[in-house]
Write a structure and sequence with these properties.
The chain is α/β, with parallel strands linked by helices and 662 residues long. It folds into 5 domains: 131 residues, 2-Layer Sandwich (Beta-Lactamase); 55 residues; 156 residues, 2-Layer Sandwich (Heat Shock Protein 90), CATH 3.30.565; 116 residues, Response regulator (Rossmann fold); 104 residues, Up-down Bundle (Four Helix Bundle (Hemerythrin (Met), subunit A)), CATH 1.20.120. The protein contains 20 helices and 18 strands. Strands 7, 8, 9, 10, 11, 12 and 13 form a 7-stranded mixed sheet that branches. It has a 6-stranded antiparallel sheet with strand order 3-2-1-6-5-4. The longest helix is centred in the N-terminal third of the chain and has 67 residues. The protein is elongated. It starts with 11 loop residues before the first helix and ends with a helix. Keywords: ATP-binding, Cell membrane, Kinase, Membrane, Nucleotide-binding, Phosphoprotein, Transferase, Transmembrane, Transmembrane helix, Two-component regulatory system. GO terms for molecular function: ATP binding; phosphorelay sensor kinase activity. At low DSF concentrations, interacts with RpfF. It is found in: Cell membrane.
Length: 662
């Protein structure tokens, strides 16, 4: 028997490359293609219709009606000829066609009597497959049917292009996610490296300031303290940007004394005021004492805005004013304004002044200093409180920045806080686990000032030996140490020694979720470096209080779930219940697979759980899974992946607890 001829397009290699670019061969069924096939069958009134692609040796059916098989050899397909054409091929009666009249599928097989095929042509002109209508009887299509086939063929190519673009977007998204994770990790590690020496600089400067100094020495020490605080502010600004981008910066809602906060900011900054500038603070007589909100973020906003005003004002005045513009049964609406008579902002720069790394003039950084981050952070912090910042400015006349924040009313009256002194805590014996010599020396000096006795362990293992030999009231625990780090040491103290001794984490690191991880391994307090002596002393007093009970709650953003629910509370609850039932079990499987180095299982579990994390807008946990998934794909787990797995485990416990309380 004569082998049927196999016509080959002149651009066969390029055509095959175009086909393989779509990664469509041997893929699973797809509703979009199945719907197109049904539409062809309906429009043309035929029992057989298919969407197929032709590679080196076969015709593979992506979707078919009336065929029942997934592929046929290329040399017996009608479509091997159709891909040679630039337009639709229509054979009304195969018995009368010299090319096909003796074909086995005409005389038997599929009993093809009518055939219409449209080449599936890529945007760059390659015929990679066909869209076909086939019947067992003779037929002639009308022009509407032919046009419909051409339109459906274009739709099929559009679906392929869309799929390719989605794959590319997904790849770009993964690259972007890896870049964000790398950036966050870099920022966190750099903050650790900067904060460690900065902790010593600020700490020893504070200690030196407490000694007897002459006027010149006092002036020098004040200058060093201001420089240290400015450097710390820049480091914190960079970290805040990272937290805002990943959705991990939240706004507190706790009672605070608004008037005291404003006066504190005023007193803090008035030492920077040039002699030629008058610095004023005007508070509305009706302004409330106590409100509920985020005192720290308000402080940060005002320090940035007032600091800018003072920096760019050489003469005249800088005025900070706060007015109550509205009061309801539950809220106060307060307008904050920072106005100066400084250099002003050019009109063309007003729209971009809040952009990151942007300043009013290219020469601003050189003349006045600054990173161009402050106003961008201010804008985001204000927007996180459902408010908006506005600016009025005239060049060489001055600027005014103002915003309105709604604060909840507080029933609390401020309690008089007794001054914290070391004597009030008695003669404490404290163990410090810390490997950095400068930090050891600093903490020792601070503890001596407090009147406490201190032993120092170079690492966690040495710290455990100290605890086995001596009695201590408290442990100050660095997180990054050789041999045994802070986490491993705390777990040993809690689980192997069964000790309940209070442990305070002290770290210059700033990875997302680290504070939660500290609490979940059994630590009682958390003090970031560089630490302030009053903050450390207050934390010590807090954890030593017998009535102290650590309370913390992760906040889960349900806005996406609420949007999907469209007001259906039953659907919302079903989604929450599914998360509670499904995710802890999957996390346990992930933990087990991770321990067993089952890379395939870890990769699949991490990938599947990420969609749930994204749905509940748990960006930090989704980022943890992204790192784990990537390392599982590379079949090698690093210490970073182990850290992320621990953070993810602790995070899921907190999220489930929160959702159950709903």
């Amino acid at each position: 028997m004569k082998t049927p001829e196999l016509p080959i397009p002149s651009n066969e290699l390029e055509r095959l490359a175009a086909l393989k670019r779509y990664n469509i061969l041997d893929t699973l069924p797809d509703n979009a293609f199945d719907d197109a096939t049904k539409l062809v069958s309906y429009i043309c009134g035929v029992p057989i219709a298919h969407i197929s692609f032709i590679d080196e040796s076969r015709q593979w059916f992506k979707s078919e009606i009336g065929i029942g098989i997934s592929e046929v050899p290329r040399e017996i397909s009608f479509c091997r000829y159709t891909i040679l054409e630039s337009k639709m091929v229509e054979i009304n009666d195969t018995f009368k066609n010299d090319r096909f009249k003796d074909d086995p599928n005409v005389r038997g097989g599929f009993n093809v009597r009518f055939y219409a095929g449209v080449p599936l042509t890529t945007p760059d002109g390659y015929n990679i497959g066909t869209l076909c209508a086939v019947d067992h009887v003779t037929k002639e299509l009308n022009e509407d049917q032919r046009n419909a086939l051409r339109i459906v063929a274009k739709h099929v190519i559009s679906q392929l292009e869309l799929g390719t673009k989605n794959v590319q977007l997904d790849a770009q998204k993964k690259i972007a996610e890896r870049a964000v994770l790398a950036k966050d990790s870099f920022l966190a590690n750099m903050s650790h490296e900067i904060r460690t020496p900065l902790n010593a600089i600020i700490g020893f400067t504070d200690l030196l300031a407490q000694t007897k100094l002459n006027a010149v020495q006092r002036d020098y020490i004040n200058s060093v303290q201001i420089a240290g605080e400015n450097l710390l502010l820049i480091v914190n600004d960079i970290l805040d940007l990272s937290k805002m981008e990943s959705g991990n910066l939240t706004i507190e809602a706790v009672p605070f004394n608004l008037k005291n906060t404003l006066k504190h900011v005023y007193n803090l900054l008035k030492i920077k005021v040039p002699k030629e500038v008058e610095f004023n603070l005007f508070l509305d007589a009706d302004m409330p004492e106590m409100v509920i909100g985020d005192e720290g973020r308000l402080n940060q906003i005002l320090v940035n805005l007032i600091g800018n005003a003072l920096k760019f004002t050489h003469e005249g005045e800088v005025t900070v004013s706060v007015k109550m513009i509205e009061e309801t049964e539950t809220h106060y609406s307060l307008k904050f304004s920072v106005k100066d008579t400084g250099i002003g902002i050019p009109p063309k720069k007003l729209k971009t002044i809040f952009e990151r790394f942007t300043q009013a003039e290219d020469s601003t950084t050189r003349k006045f200093g600054g990173t161009g981050l402050g106003l961008n952070i201010v804008k985001q912090l204000i927007e996180l409180q459902n408010a908006e910042i506005n600016v009025k400015s005239e060049q060489n006349k001055g600027s005014e920045f103002f915003f309105v924040i709604n604060y909840k009313k507080s029933d609390n009256t401020e309690e008089t806080i007794e001054e914290l002194t070391g004597e009030s805590l008695g003669k404490l014996k404290i163990l410090l686990c810390e490997d950095n010599v400068l930090n050891q020396k600093l903490v020792k000096s601070v503890m001596q000032n407090f009147g406490f006795e201190l032993d120092i362990a170079e690492n966690g293992e040495e710290g455990i030996e100290f605890l086995l030999k001596n009695e201590y009231d408290l442990v100050l625990m660095d997180l990054q140490m050789p041999i045994k780090d802070g986490y491993q040491t705390t777990e040993y103290i809690r689980n192997e020694m069964n000790s309940t001794i209070p442990i305070i984490a002290m770290t210059a690191h700033s990875l997302m979720g680290e504070q939660e991880r500290c609490y979940n391994v059994g630590m009682d307090g958390y003090v970031p470096k560089p630490f302030k002596q009053p903050v450390l002393l207050e934390t010590i007093k807090t954890v030593l209080n017998p009535d102290y009970k650590l309370t913390r709650k992760r906040r889960v953003n349900l806005s996406f779930i609420n949007e999907m629910a469209c007001g259906d509370l039953g659907f919302r609850q079903d989604m929450i219940n599914l998360f509670i039932e499904k995710i802890p079990a999957e996390e346990a499987l992930l933990e087990e697979a991770f321990k067993n180095n089952d890379y395939l299982k870890v990769k699949n579990l991490a990938h599947n759980m990420r969609s749930s994390m994204d749905m509940f807008m748990l960006d930090d946990l989704s980022n943890c899974l992204a790192v784990i998934e990537e390392e599982a794909r590379n079949e090698k787990f690093s210490s970073e992946a182990a850290d992320k797995a621990d953070i993810f485990h602790c995070g899921i416990i907190e999220v489930v607890k929160y959702l159950k309380e709903l």
